[in-house]
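Structure tokens please, single chain.
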Amino acid sequence: MLVLLLGAPLLLPIQTKPESPRMARLAAEVAHDEPETVARFWTELAAAGTPLYESGPDAEHTLVTFVWRGEPATRNVLVNFDAVTGIANLQLARLGDTDVWFRSYVLPSVAQFYYQISPDDSLVPYEDEKDWGARSANFRADPLNAKGIVIGGKQHFSFAVLPGAPRIEAYAERADVAKGRFDPGGRGVYQIESKALGKQSVWIYTTPGLADTGGASNLVLFLDGSGAWQLLPSRNLLDNLFHDGRIGPTIAVYADSPDRERDLACSDAYLAFLVDELLPWVQEKYGVDIAPATTVISGRSLGGLFAGYACLRRPDVFGNAMMQSPSLWWGQARDGRNEWLTRQFEATPGSRARYFVAPGLFETGANSPTSISILDSSRHFRDVLRTQGGSIEYREVFGGHDPLNWEVSLPEGIELFLGQKR
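Here you go.
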């Protein structure tokens, strides 16, 4: 398994206007007014796909070129991804008076990330955007890239997977591995009625045999659960780790809040639901015995923030927090200051839980002019826990705020907390 470790350098500053040999050749052909030049170019890309990947300045870097076919009235084109910040650094340039818009970047060859294209963008700086609903309605997938996320029959996000991106064997579909059970099956979902919060959606995975026998079990609680089983190959991972003897019997609970902005922002009411309603329901229904030392609460983004909060407040239930791309910048909505959760840890040292924190090296942007980035706030949280002598493992991945990043660190986090000697 390849994990890109703490302190792994970016090697070179990300270059946002290097020259692509392919695009330079096209520009020369256009300048010489060669007939059918642009048409041949689009035919080539339709067959090869996009983005363009070309050799970078060294073996550790790749030249990546995003391309968009504009309309005569197209005013501008933006590529949305996390590796660079600033609207000016994300704008594609038009090639002469053709319909070709493009921009090249030198990126680490191990990177992989989601991206979208926004033609005729508002060009409002992201940190100043007041209406993300209207802004993002214009974002679309790259039509020449077959790799991406399809929602409701339409591709919404495209994948950039660079030549050196890790292939994680822990997720492989293997004929020799028995599949765990996933309840309630089909397109069903359990609806758990919370006394304070209303209906909550839940799915349950159990390693082979556990649902029939019950007994001592690891437990992984995935926040934003529908994404954790639909966008991350987490069930394959658990199947493989269990088959290989790397983890013991395990139950995974995939929980969705109907109001994640309310519940995952360090909500005591949501924590009470998990502890007093959801986990007792799971234990009774499946006959499993769980313990804090082998119970993991796993979240990404705002869910990563809540995972840390849950372990701070209830280490008697949650002994382990997996915090991927955690929104540790959060706090202004609570008391007008950034990093509310980190300040709680500073005020109450001596946490008994264990923490695995994994931001992306591309997560350097802020969501407002007065906020800070996921990467910077994660590093600060790490430093606070280390100063206090807390149990923390920290990883930085060459990726952005998306599941391609989280796939890289998930296997290590699971084995860190639940791994057993073979």
